[in-house]
Write a structure and sequence with these properties.
This protein has helices spanning 16-25, 43-50, 111-120, 132-145, 147-159, 185-197, 203-220, 223-227, 231-234, 237-247, 253-265, 273-287; strands spanning 4-9, 31-36, 61-66, 81-84, 93-98. The protein is an alpha/beta fold and 288 residues long. Helix 1 (16-25) links the parallel strand 1 (4-9) and strand 2 (31-36). Helix 3 packs across helix 4 (132-145), helix 4 packs across helix 10 and helix 5 (147-159) packs parallel to helix 6. The mean pLDDT is 87.
Amino acid sequence: MSKTIKIYCEGTNSSFDCKILNLIISDIIGKILLQPIGSKKGAGPIINYDFPIPSIVKPDFFFFFRDRDFDLAVPNNEELTIQDNKDSFQNVIGQRCLSYRCTIENYLFDEKILFEFLKKKNLLLENSIGSETDVKNKMIKAAKNIKYYQAIRHTLGVLRTNLDLGTSFLNKNKSSGDLPNDLTLEYCKNKALEKIKNIKDETKKWDNFEIELQKFLMIFNETIFYNNLEFLTWFQGKDFATALQRELQNFSKRDLNEFYQFSLDQFNYSKFADLVQLKNLIQEKINE
C-alpha cells in the first residue's frame, strides 16, 4: 500500500520552488501533498503545527525542500544535502533536503534558453549578441562583477555559526538581489569586517575571516570556474540576476520575470542530478 508523502517548500503556490517541484512529482504515482510555507525561517514550528490539525492529512513521511543559500558548504558532488528532521511531531518523520545550487533561481539560468529569450524580445543586436557563446560571455562577465561580494557572503556564511551575522553587510532592509554600489574586494571586505567588529567577544571570528575569504577567492578566481558556469551553483541567484541586468541593455525587471517563466516553460529537471535524486527519494518513500 502506497504511503502519503508531504513536501514542504519555500515560497507560495506560484513560486519557482513550487512550480519546479510540481514538475518533479508530476509522473510519480502515489499520494503526494505539496505545501509552500513562505520563508525557510521558522519552518520547524510551521511543519510541527501542521500535523495535529484534524482537518489536515497526516503524512507517513515529509520532505522539506529548501535553498542551500550560504548555510552549508557546497558538496563536492552534484547532490542534495540531506538532514534528518530533528523536530518531528506525533511520530511523523521527515528530512530536510537542501538544493545543490545556492537558490532556486540558479536552476533557471541557461545560455541557450537566455539566447532564445533575447532573440524573442529583439534584444540581441543592441547587446552585440550573435550566438549562444556571446550570451555565455555576458553571463560570465556579470558573474565576475560580483565575485568578491559573493566570496564575502560565503565567508560570512561560514563565520555566522550561532551568530546573528547574516551573509551580507547591506542594511537590513536590503535583500538578495540588492547589490552594493561598490563591488571591489577592498570595499566588500572592509564593510564585512566592520560588521564582524561590532560583534563582541568574537576575536576568533575576526582572525578566521581572512583565512575563509581566501578559500573562496581561490575558487572564484579560477578560469575553469567561469568557463564551466560553476557560478550558477555557488552565487546567489537573485544577486546574479541583478548583475546580469546591469550587463544587458534594456533588460528590465519585467523582462527578467518573463525570462524566468520562459525558462520554466521548458524546464527539464532531469538535467540536474540533485533534483533527480529528490524525485527518487520521494518515489522510494511512497513505495516503502
